[in-house]
Write a structure and sequence with these properties.
It is built from four helices and 15 strands. By secondary structure, the chain is of the alpha/beta class. The protein has two domains: 170 residues, no CATH class; 115 residues, Immunoglobulin-like (Sandwich). The strands form three sheets. Strands 1, 2, 3, 4, 5 and 6 form a six-stranded mixed β-sheet that branches.
Length: 340
C-alpha cells in the first residue's frame, strides 16, 4: 500500500482540516449570534413584564392610599414586586406631583408623551427630521415607569438618575419624547437624558405609562362623577300655593362637600332682594344670572332650597341650575316649573 493511499485512508490534509474548522467557526458564530439575539429578546420581554407589573403596583398603591401616588423611593418599592430590571438596574418612576392633592378631581396633568417614529432610517431627529412621521402626542399622563434597557443607558428625558434616585416628580408642564424605531433601518442614535455622559445609541428604553383618565377609572374615581340629583322640580297647584323644593348636588370632589351654585332665571321668578319674583333662594348667596357660563363659582352649600309663593301668573317657567365642585368641574340641569 502506498503512502498516498494510507494518507487518504487515515486522515485529512491540512487544507481539508482548515476548511472543516472554518465551516465549524462560521456555524458557531451564527449560533452565538442567534443565541445572543434570543437571550436579549427574552431579557426585554422579562423587563417589560416587570415594568408593566410596576404600573399595576403603583395603581394599586394609589387606590389603597387615599388616591395618593407613591412619592418616595420607599413608597415605590412597597408598591412593586421588584424595583430593578433583569439587568439588575433600578427601574425609574416618573409622576405628576400635583395629582396627590386632588387626583380624582383632576382634569389635566403636567406630563405629555410624544411618540416619535422614523420610517426610513435617515439621520436626523426622528420627531422632526427627514423621513420622520408626525409624532403621536398623548396628553395628561399620570405616571410612567421605565428601564434603561440592555445598553445600560437611560435615553429618555426627565427620567431620574438610576444610579442615585429612581423617583422623579414632575411639577411643571413637561413633554417627554419616546421612540419607536425600526432596527432594520439603522435608526438614528438617541440620548435625550442629560444627567449623565452623552452616549447616543439606538433607543432601547422600555417604558409604560398610565393616563389620568385610565388611572381615575382603575381606582374607581368614576363613582364620584359630579351630578345634580333632582330629575325635576315640583310644580305648584296654582299661583297662590306655597312652594318648597330642594336642589341637591352629589359626588364630585370632595364628595359631599359644599358646591358653588348659579341659576339662570330668564323669567325672573326667583327673588334674592325682595324684588322681582316671589320664590326665595336659600342660601341667599346663590348667584342668579342671565348667563352662568362665565360666572366665578364659590363653594357655599351642598344644596339649594327654593321656597315661598308661586309666581302670580299661570304658565311654565324655566330654571337652569349649575353646580360646581371644589376642583372646578361643573354640571347643569334645566328644570321647568309649571303653574296652573
Amino acid at each position: 500500500m502506498t503512502n498516498q493511499m494510507i494518507k487518504k485512508i487515515w486522515g485529512f490534509s491540512l487544507i481539508e482540516l482548515a476548511t472543516v474548522l472554518a465551516v465549524v467557526g462560521i456555524v458557531l458564530s451564527l449560533s452565538l449570534k442567534l443565541l445572543g439575539s434570543t437571550v436579549e429578546r427574552t431579557q426585554r420581554t422579562a423587563t417589560r413584564s416587570l415594568v408593566e407589573s410596576s404600573i399595576d403596583g403603583v395603581t394599586g398603591f394609589t387606590a389603597n392610599n387615599n388616591q395618593t401616588l407613591p412619592e418616595t423611593l420607599a413608597d415605590f418599592r412597597s408598591a412593586t414586586k421588584s424595583d430593578t430590571d433583569v439587568w439588575n438596574r433600578p427601574l425609574s418612576y416618573i409622576f405628576d406631583t400635583n395629582l396627590n392633592d386632588l387626583l380624582c378631581g383632576a382634569t389635566s396633568t403636567n406630563i405629555t408623551i410624544k411618540i416619535c417614529r422614523d420610517n426610513d432610517g435617515n439621520d436626523g431627529d426622528p420627531c422632526t427630521g427627514t423621513g420622520a412621521t408626525a409624532p403621536t402626542t398623548i396628553n395628561n399622563i399620570a405616571f410612567m415607569v421605565l428601564s434603561g434597557g440592555a445598553n445600560f443607558n437611560t435615553q429618555t428625558a426627565n427620567a431620574p438618575n438610576p444610579l442615585s434616585n429612581v423617583v422623579s416628580g414632575i411639577t411643571t408642564n413637561t413633554t417627554i419624547n419616546t421612540y419607536q424605531l425600526a432596527p432594520s433601518l439603522a435608526p438614528p442614535k438617541i440620548d435625550d437624558y442629560i444627567n449623565d455622559v452623552n452616549r447616543p445609541e439606538t433607543y432601547d428604553d422600555i417604558i409604560a405609562w398610565v393616563s389620568l383618565t385610565e388611572l381615575q377609572q382603575k381606582i374607581a374615581c368614576l363613582g364620584t362623577e359630579l351630578n345634580i340629583v333632582n330629575n325635576e322640580l315640583p310644580s305648584p297647584v296654582n299661583a297662590s300655593a306655597v312652594y318648597n323644593a330642594e336642589i341637591v348636588a352629589s359626588n364630585g370632589f370632595p364628595s359631599g362637600s359644599n358646591y358653588g351654585w348659579c341659576i339662570e332665571d330668564p323669567s325672573n321668578i326667583l327673588d334674592l332682594s325682595g324684588l322681582g319674583g316671589t320664590i326665595t333662594v336659600t342660601p341667599n348667596t346663590v348667584s342668579i344670572q342671565s348667563d352662568c357660563s362665565s360666572f366665578a363659582f364659590n363653594p357655599i352649600s351642598p344644596s339649594v332650597v327654593l321656597a315661598g309663593n308661586a309666581v302670580a301668573d299661570a304658565g311654565s317657567y324655566t330654571l337652569k341650575v349649575f353646580a360646581q365642585d371644589q376642583v372646578g368641574k361643573i354640571v347643569s340641569k334645566t328644570f321647568v316649573i309649571t303653574v296652573n
